[in-house]
Amino acid sequence: MSSLTSGVYPPPLSSPEQTHLITTIKDWTIANGLTIRPPPNPKADPNAVTAVSAPVTLFPSPFPRVCFEQGRVVQQSYNELYAAVSRDEKFIEDMVNEVKDGDDFIGQLWNIHLKVKEEGYTQPLSLGLFRSDYMVHQDCTSEPPTLQAKQVEFNTIASSFGGLSQQTSGLHKFLANTEYPLLEKNISSILLDLPENKTTQGLAAGIQAAYTAYGDSELGHPRCVVFLTQDGERNVFDQRHLEYQVLQAKPAIPVFRLPFSEVLQHTSIADTPKRQLLYKLPRNPDKVYEVAVIYLRAGYGPGDYPDSKGWEARLHLERSHAIRCPTVLTQLAGTKKVQQVLATPDLSVLAKYINNKTPAAQELWKTFTNIYPMDTSPSGLEARKKALDPQEAEKYVLKPQREGGGNNIYRGSIPSFLKTVPEEHWGSYILMELITPPPVTNTILRNGALEAGGVICELGVYGTCLWDQNSGKAKHNEQAGYLLRTKGDKSEEGGVAAGYGCMDSVALV
Ligand code: ADP
Ligand code: MG
Ligand code: MG
Predict the structure, then answer these.
(1) pTM for the predicted model, two decimal places
(2) Which residues take part in binding ATP (predicted)?
């Protein structure tokens, strides 16, 4: 353990120190795009360019080195695992059948796959920009107590905050070199072990690898990458960092942002056996690009499919020759139900995809925590009993098959929530043991105000993988940097964009 844990950290700040640090952080965040768009405000000038600082901690949070290393070391195995699950159509079908009665969204996604399968997929390559999320678990049953990274969830679609996380590491490094040593209770930069974080480059390298692997346009068009976006996206600068980095390739790769709601308007599918996806520049329809890679930062939740046009657009993309990041099958592989089945206690399911012969795979096995089905199997019935008992339920979180935060039901709210759901649909949820990390304190700067106190940190490790869906062969498999999100310890959810959490970086201890 370093002196970070023995001394007072983060140090108390005098009022002038606070004011100075706040000003410095505000300037740095705006100058370096550690920013989000503010919520819509009818009184604001509609022509104004608006950005506000993303909420951040004043100091990097202490984070156990063993858990950080564990997360990094297992990432390539996780990439492999999820590529393998995406290729196992039967496994995904079984999962869909378990949940689709209570979850129309998952059923609809599966239908897209079935339709394209009938016609025949023309693009064997599949791209994943993944993020595996963890919290620190303290095992007090071992002597001395050990710390373990336990997986919260695995994201296979729209894994966000890569751009902002690299900037947050940059902010804390900057403060460590300039401001922290000047504090009354100074922390010199040597005391802080701040690992390098090159998430933007890492994620861009995945997209660039897919672009290259796509090959030249047989139709003679210039090629491009399309970022599929949501209308009114506030986390736009996070996406921009990645976009500008992809463009940096030599030769440069054109990237266009396309709202999901406009896919059918601005793209078409070539009338060829390959079904190339063509993008017409809205401002100059004579300019036609062939889309090599389509990166989804939309389409992960029912809100993006308000009517049948949304599903038509998703089918249109899925049946095209563009490399999808992700495919429908990979999106389905990222459901909490799949995570629960993989976490089956004897780990026999996991063993089908990953042998535990390598040290990295052995570490991966250790990241699982207890997750139970809510179906009518013996363990499902046992889980139902726990979920309905107000006292027992305190140890759990109930999750539907949804992404993007704000969908879970926590602790004492579980029994009454379940009573509002028809029992035959309970199987579309999973019950997960709550991970309770050791206490950490820090101060969050949000909307110019400070919130000091106990915080809970969630580590995300990014991974990129490009594989052949037919052969399973991976053309690119990398670990791609990390994210640390921190929330007040009174809050259940950790979403930064949703306003619960904030950006942070690790100071390894
Ligand atoms: P989503 O896909 O919506 O992000 P998550 O499974 O990540 O869903 O849950 C959202 C948040 O809920 C997490 O960021 C975390 O703060 C909290 N959470 C989820 N699962 C657990 C758990 N097992 N223990 C503690 N907190 C959890
Ligand atoms: Mg998620
Ligand atoms: Mg999450």
Answers:
(1) 0.97
(2) 153, 336, 399-408, 410, 432-435, 458, 487, 493
